[in-house]
Amino acid sequence: MDSLVAPYRREMLKEFGLVIGEATTDLVVGRPNSSLGFWLCDKLIEKSKDSSFFKDEPLVAFINNGGLRADLPKGSITVGDIYKVMPFDNRMVYLKLSLDRIPEMEAYLKEKGGEPIGGFRLVKGKLEFPDSLAQSKKYFWVVTSDFLANGGDNMFFFNNPLQRFDTNILFRDFIIEAVKKEKKIAFYPEERINW
After folding, report:
1. Is 116 strand, coil or helix?
2. CA distances, 20 to each of 11, 14, 46, 187, 190 (Å)
3. Rounded distance between C-alpha atoms, residue 81 and residue 140, angstroms
4. Residue 173: how many CA atoms within 13 Å on its side-chain side?
5. Coil vs helix vs strand at 193
6. Judging by DSSP bridges, how do beta strands 139-145 and 59-62 pair with one another?
7. Neighbours of 141 (CB within 10 A)
8. Rounded Cα–Cα distance for residues 121 and 106 (Å)
9. Phi, psi at 51, each rounded to 5°
10. What distances in angstroms separate CA 172 from CA 85, 90, 94, one per listed residue?
11. What is the bridge-based pairing of β-strands 59-62 and 117-118?
């Protein structure tokens, strides 16, 4: 049996050891502000805004620290490191939400002590968008994982969206591609969440 599995194990170990980029700063999971989570949220928005559909739409990212299982310390980043960060087969999902979901999201962030977000900030307990686009359209889009979009981690404010787009893009594959594209990742601590 070992002789049957050995070639696959060797190939897997070879792939996991492949260096795909470098972290020039420590990217950590934490609360209320997570440098790894914020970097990931920013990359989700950046990639989504490349699409003609989302280019002029109000778009934010909202994920959870529980889905990020490891830090990315300063130094080389391998495929195996990304599997440690994101061991789950979560897929990217887009949800269109009305503005009346904002108070629930604010309360959730306060209760949890913060989660990774992008595209808006929690300032003195209130979510603030960078411009008036969401206010003028009366809705906003959220990019998140299918687990959270289905109410995982008690994110019930994602239930019954105005619209939902499921993708076949695994979060893990997205992170691998983002690291390969950026090559050198530097994300310095910033305060996106405060009360």
Report:
1. coil
2. 16, 13, 20, 17, 25
3. 33
4. 8
5. strand
6. parallel
7. 24
8. 10
9. -80, 140
10. 8, 8, 17
11. antiparallel
pTM over 0.90: yes
- Name the percent of the chain lying above pLDDT 70: 93
Cα of first residue to Cα of last residue in the chain, in angstroms, is 57
Length of the chain: 195
H runs (alpha helix) in the chain: 2-16, 35-49, 79-85, 102-112, 133-137, 146-149, 171-182
Strand partners, 94: 143, 165
Dist. CA 49–CA 45, nearest whole Å: 6
Which residues does 136 contact at the CB level (< 8 Å), separation at least 6?
A: none
Chain segment 53-81, per-residue pLDDT in tens: 999 999 999 999 999 999 999 999 999 99
How is 18-30 classified by DSSP, letter by letter? -EEEEESS-B---
Q: Tell me the per-residue pLDDT of 116-132, one tens digit each, with 9 for 90 and over.
A: 999 999 999 999 999 99
